[in-house]
Design brief:
Oligomer: single chain
Helix content: 40-55%
Number of domains: 2
Number of strands: 7
Number of helices: 13
Radius of gyration: 27 Å
Bound molecules: zinc ion
Shape: elongated
Order of helices and strands: EEEHHEHEEEHHHHHHHHHH
Distance between the termini: 32 Å
Structural class: alpha+beta
Amino acid sequence: MTKDESFWCEFGCEVRIYYDHIEFSDGLRIPIPRNVDTNKIHNCPNLDPHAPYDPEDKNYMFMPKDPDVYTEMADAEGGHFWDYEEVSHHYLELDMNFDGLEFKNYRDDLKKLLVEKLNEIPEFFDSIALRAGEESLPACLQTNTINIYGDLGEFQPAALLGIFYEMDGNLDDAKKCFEIQTEVSTYGDALNLSAREPEPNPEKKKYWLNRIEEIDQQIRMNKQELLTKKQTGEESKKAQTSRQIQGQFSLQAVISKTYDFELDDLRTFADSKFTKNDMKTILKETPWYNHNDKTLIDKVREMQAKEENDTILPLDPTDWDYLDLFDKIQILQSHINGNIRNYLHTIRRHRNITSHPKRYKKKDLEQRNKMIILYIQECKDYFKKSKDA
Ligand SMILES: [Zn+2]
């Protein structure tokens, strides 16, 4: 932060600001204007597209009213004041038709343009309209915090920039953007057209905090994966220790850990999320995959009637215990984030390996076994945190 260097806001609102520069790994930079007194990101009232203005006098809407401020700004900024035409032109250029966002080169063009425009007018509260043209917006852009009207999406700049970085796999950069977006959502935003003052939006804030948590998980697991790959490579060279390690990470040992995890941690987590009655209702309402009109409650009853015990069950089984891991993940869907859902499905699929382990190279299998142990740990930590929250 460079708080010692402050300026009058360029748009005549008579607020002192300073710029907090954020740099991304590709070298792009954006300035975040912060209020000198509050350190909050400056949400300039003069840039609010719904602010009333005098049509007779619209070129003066970005001029400070205080003559002292006017003189100071004229001296400091070489006499340049924004006028109505310049500002509207800026926003017009940001209102784009956009096809082919799934391609990195198109995305890069838009990203550069967005950054260039944010350097011109650093405004993080207003929304940018993005038109997908012929198609609907790509799934990764259809988040629940974004207003979508048909093929038109409205995005706040930091969110959009972060989504682009996430699509590129630049997780650290995405995180920086989502942190700015969380802050913006904390004070409120200009999307609520009826509100003169932006109102805080706790739901959006929570949404972006969750996105940051997901990114942190991905960053952690990517690091772990690299580490395990390296270790597995080194271990296969060291014949002496490998027998011991193979035992610890043998396929059978890992599979049995996945069952322990399912019967213990996953079950406890589900119990913390649903009462017995909730669970009954859910089972009655969730369709049984590939079984026409039947629901999961039918599945549970049929399994109980068979009672063959070819599935692993705890001593005192409840309805929940008769479900497959697949059903359990589906039921928990709205209580877990996207990463955890992926980890659970990876754990589930890992069990299929037992039926054809020969298809895997020994080294790959070791590596996968280790990752499964890490996924289990990550899920356990997540369950614990989510129960305490
Ligand atoms: Zn301002």
